[in-house]
Specification:
Structural class: alpha+beta
Number of strands: 8
Largest sheet: 5 strands, antiparallel
Distance between the termini: 28 Å
Strand content: 25-35%
Helix content: 25-40%
Number of helices: 3
Oligomer: single chain
Order of helices and strands: HEHEEEEEEHE
Shape: globular
């Protein structure tokens, strides 16, 4: 068992994209499924599928690359709030990632959402990661 399953999730995506893999398999959880849906909606991954097995299930993610240059769509994916040091932000001081070009994924009372949605709904929460 890992101490920080979200960091493991992000590291598997980071390593697979730097290795040029097309598909990465990750053990599933509800928060990982929510982050995966956000990455798909924002255009950072090509596709995903949730598969059930005897244990907790698997998330299969199809990574997205530029067709001509083979550069991954996810340039950087960084864990911000860690188990040893949680990072929270109110609705007024939400971070702007790469001046609005990237996204911050937050865990809020309204669920797991992006920083743009949190500003619109005027909620703060725990900053899980930055993606750009």
């Amino acid at each position: 068992m890992t101490t920080d399953p979200i960091a493991d999730f992000l590291t598997r995506i980071r390593n697979a994209s730097s290795a040029g893999l097309k598909i990465v398999e990750i053990p599933a959880s509800n928060i990982k499924k929510a982050i995966t849906k956000i990455l798909f909606d924002q255009g950072y991954i090509a596709n995903f599928r949730f598969e059930e097995d005897d244990k907790q299930g698997i998330i299969k993610i199809a990574l997205k690359y530029n067709a001509s240059t083979k550069v991954p769509a996810i340039t950087k994916i960084v864990r911000i709030s860690k188990p040893g040091l949680r990072k929270y932000s109110g609705s007024s001081e939400l971070p702007r990632v790469m001046n609005g070009l990237g996204i911050a994924i937050l865990s809020t009372s309204k669920g797991v959402i992006t920083d743009k949605e949190a500003r619109k709904e005027n909620v703060g929460g725990e900053i899980l990661c930055y993606v750009y």
